[in-house]
Design goal:
There is one protein chain. The chain is α+β, with helices and mostly antiparallel strands and 156 residues long. It has one domain. It contains three helices and nine strands. The N and C termini lie far apart (36 Å).
């Protein structure tokens, strides 16, 4: 594995290289990395490293929360690494935002939202404010639900 998603990752943004291949721009607390691997592949490899498959993590949230699309992803509950897709968890060229790294967000123009991360880095993405707000809150709800389940299991 060339790169492991950790607690420093704020977002993964796809881009196409000169050969038309999907690659990843990884925004972190302390900078950026450009990787010759698609966002979905990067997420799959990191999920496996943390003990489950991407598909298994998605299926768990579907089962627990009843979501059918735009499923938030728990990469590592123990390390507090959670992300959500902007459009679809199935797209290979999807933008992924890491929930705990978001400081604030606001509409900058119709169908564009500016995200400010905790490191004060800002990005504008093509998504309406209401859609982003909905996705962000779905992810927060999943985190809360998983933490409640984890707490109950530890206490038993």
């Amino acid at each position: 594995m060339s790169f492991l998603i950790d607690e420093k990752v704020c977002a993964i943004i796809p881009f196409y290289n000169e050969y038309g291949e999907i690659c990843s721009r990884v925004i972190k607390d302390d900078g950026e990395n450009k990787l010759k691997i698609s966002p979905i592949r990067l997420l799959e490899e990191s999920c496996i490293t943390y003990g489950s498959t991407f598909r298994g993590r998605i299926d768990a949230i579907k089962y627990l929360m009843g979501f059918k699309k735009r499923i938030p992803l728990t990469i590592s509950c123990m390390k507090n690494i959670f992300a959500f897709p902007i459009n679809s968890h199935l797209r290979k060229d999807e933008i992924w935002i890491f929930t705990n790294k978001v400081l604030k967000y606001r509409e900058v123009k119709k169908s564009f939202t500016r995200i400010t991360f905790r490191n004060l880095k800002e990005i504008d993405i093509e998504i309406s404010f209401s859609s982003f707000d909905s996705q962000f809150n779905r992810s927060i709800t999943c985190i809360y639900h998983l933490r409640q389940n984890l707490s109950v299991n530890i206490d038993e």
